Amino acid sequence: MNVEQLYQALKKSQEAKGIYFNKDKDLVFELLESLLLNKDRYGYMACPCRLACSDREKDKDIICPCVYREPDLEEFGACYCGLYVSKAVHNNQSRVKYVPERRPPEKIC
Amino acid sequence: MNTEKPMLYALSTCSHCKSTKKLLNDCNVEYDYVEVDDLEGEERKAILEDIKALNPRCSFPTIKIKDTVIVGYKEKEIKAALGITE
């Protein structure tokens, strides 16, 4: 799968859930390329902004879309990487705030 | 005077880390950096311990500028720590 195909597939599946790509398309494509790189590297699309450990079971919380996406979208209007934004941000009804890391540090290995 | 170079702990795939690098480059700052996702074994373990000492959440980017530790791509804070005024 190339980056354009990934973009189209995710756009469709995520928008159906009311979740949108960031309007910064350069950022989105850069992150999608990193996701494909991580898929090659680890065998799964680990979050590009977090340190994966090559163990799918240990990294399952950070396989994109990560389990932290939903609370981050709700609280900050964007996911940790900035790949996805909430409907309110997409519609310019609210702004993206700085998204701090919420993954517990003990999960990093 | 503390003349040590800023140290950037980054991931090769992280957008915030890339933005931070670009900022430091644009400011013509000399800095050291390490991309932790490219490390393995003991080397990786040792760097992770260094990062946790600066930033217990061990998130990226973590930047040490003199005695200031900045977590995340925070342009204003990074520039302030570098002594860059606009």
Automatic annotation (TrEMBL), chain B:
Any coiled-coil regions, as ranges: none
Residues of the Glutaredoxin domain: 7-70
Annotated CDD domains: NrdH
Organism: Desulfotignum phosphitoxidans DSM 13687
Protein name as it appears in the record: Ferredoxin-thioredoxin reductase
InterPro entries hit by this protein: Glutaredoxin, Thioredoxin-like_sf
Taxonomic classification: Bacteria, Pseudomonadati, Thermodesulfobacteriota, Desulfobacteria, Desulfobacterales
